[in-house]
Every structure is written in structure tokens, then in C-alpha cells.
Amino acid sequence: MTRPTVLQVGRFPPRFNERLQRDYQLIRLWEQKEFLAERGAEIDIVVTSARYGCTAEQLARMPNLKAICSFGVGHDSIAVEEAKARGIAISTTPDVLNECVADTAIGLIIDTARQFSASDQHVRQGKWLKGQYPLTRKVSGKRLGIVGFGRIGKEIAKRAAGFDMDIRYHNRRPDPSTEYGYEADLKALASWADFLVLACPGGASTHHLIDAEVLAALGADGILVNISRGSVVDEQALVTALQAGTLGGAGLDVFEDEPRVPEALFAMPNVVLLPHVGSATEETRLAMENLVFDNLDAFIERGELITPL
User: Fold this and answer.
1) Rg of the Cα trace of the chain?
2) Which of 286, 303, 285, 305 is nearest to 295 (CA)?
3) Which of 122, 170, 229, 285 is catalytic?
4) pLDDT of residue 2
5) Stretch 273-277: mean pLDDT
6) What average pLDDT does this structure show over 74-95?
7) Does 127 have pLDDT greater than 80?
8) Alpha-carbon distance 42 to 128, whole Å?
9) Are 90 and 70 in contact (CB under 8 A)?
10) What percent of the chain has a predicted confidence (pLDDT) above 90?
């Protein structure tokens, strides 16, 4: 393939944008909004992310599209089945973000249980002068349930073991490579766990997997941590459970309608809210960026992807 035309669906950090502009024949969709309708047949490769995706409607306007290279591991915003039916190759950036996302999960467990963010505000607002912050909950030695025992789930378990946590997991099927306990019944896992961490993919198969019944099983002393996709949790059921005190707390890096977050969560000291920063470190984002370009170059040179979906 010589001098392919690359469509950039959405904005990325400046370094990434500049590198794309420098190295490829690039069309920036937000700058040429009518390009797909008028000249979509010219597009060879799409560069996108889990945030921007690539819809079935967009695919239909690119009859000669050969590959989609996505920044991140989430692919529920990409019309994967339509792409596969047309033989369009798809790549993501797995593995390079596992450690930072797992670190974020552990950080949310600790912050939510110990309420470090809320107690920080207690000091900053001068409330310490009026009294000590209330007691919080211990993390070490507790029971951790992990929903989704893939690459990131296993990294979370590795870290949790350092806190002497008892670990079980829920997956579509048992993983023979691990000695951790498998729980086929999600509600049973939630009932057993002190912390329930979500590390599963998004998409239709996991939409609202964590519903009111699972939250009730986790209970008034349980804490939910989500570093997967906002769609996995029934957000209204989560808000209701937290308001009613039937759920102990939540640490959330992802939401159903990002960047919009339910305002009811803002004042809750037992809730920690992050702006989807699980992989947002200099080191990890550079590694993700490099892997996108490695996939692009490999496909252009050899017609192959390094990390195909």
C-alpha cells in the first residue's frame, strides 16, 4: 500500500496529532466534516479511540477501508461485527496499559475505603480545627472480587495479593492458569466480597451487568470499583443504592455518559470520582501512542497488524 489516506476521527494529545500529520496523508474528520459523505471512498485506514469509535454509518461511507487502528483497549464504540464482515482489520493497544489501570484500581480501593480524598478536603476546608475525621475502613486482609479476569484483572489480583487479600473472580469461564477461586454466580461473588472491582470489557454483553440486585448483594459494607466501562454499571441503580446507604461506597474512573457525571455523587464522602484517567500517565500513554503507530506502519508495509483484535 503506497501513501494511504488515513482518517483521524477525533482529537488526540498534541504530540500524537502532530506525528499523524507529519507521517501520513491525513484527513481530520472534525476539520472536514463532509469528507466522508463526499469522498469517503478515498479512506484506507481509520485512526480512532474507545472514546470516538467508528460507527456502522461511518463504515458504510468508507467502501475501501482496510483497517482501523484504535488508541486504547475498549472497542465497544467500534462497529466490530460490521468491520469483520467486510474483512476490515482492527487493532487496539493491549498490555501496555495493564499496569497503570491496575494501579488505579488499587488506588480507588484504598481511597474509597480510607476516604483519603474526603479527608484531604476535611483539612483544606479547615474542618480539622473543629474535630477529627471519622473512622474509615481497613483494606488489608479483606475479600476482593474481580469481575473480568483478563490481563488487567490478573494485574489487579497480583497487587491485591500484596495486601493479603482473599481473591476470587467472575468470568465467562474458569481460568485454568490461576489458583484463585472462580465464582460463576456474580451475585454470590458480590455477597462474599468486601470490594468488587470491575475489569471486564464494555459492550452489549456486559451492559448493566452490575444492576440493583448485584449492588444489593454487595451490601451496605461493600465497595464497588469500576475501571472498565461506565456501561457495565446501571448508574441510576448505583446512585439509588448509595443514597439509601445500601451500598458502602464506590470508586469510579468511568461513567455511562462521560464526561457527564451524576451530580448526586459529588457530595458523597464515600465516593471517589476520577475523570477516566486509568491509563493516563506519561509512560503509558507514550507506549499506547507508539503501539498505534507500530500497527499503522506494519499494516502499511506488510498488510498485518501487531495487535489485531
Assistant:
1) 21
2) 305
3) 229
4) 63
5) 97
6) 95
7) yes
8) 63
9) yes
10) 95
Question: Which of these is catalytic: 18, 38, 258, 304?
Answer: 258
| Torsion region of 280: left, alpha or beta (phi above 0 gives left; psi -120 to 50 gives alpha) | beta
Among residues 155, 276, 285, 289, the one annotated as catalytic is: 276
- List the domains of the chain with CATH numbers: 5-92+282-302 (3.40.50.720), 97-273 (3.40.50.720)
Per-residue pLDDT reduced to its tens digit, 135-153: 999 999 999 999 999 999 9
Active site residue 229: yes
Question: Residue 201 gets which letter from DSSP?
Answer: -
For residues 235 and 209, the answer to whether their CB atoms sit within 8 Å is no
276 is catalytic: yes
Instruction: Give the pLDDT score at 121.
Output: 97
Give the predicted TM-score (pTM) of the model. 0.92
Count how many residues are written for the chain.
309
The CA distance from 244 to 238, in Å, is 10
Q: How many whole angstroms separate alpha carbon 46 and alpha carbon 43?
A: 7
Is 207 known to be catalytic? no
Which pLDDT score is estimated for 3? 74
Report the SS3 class of residue 272.
strand
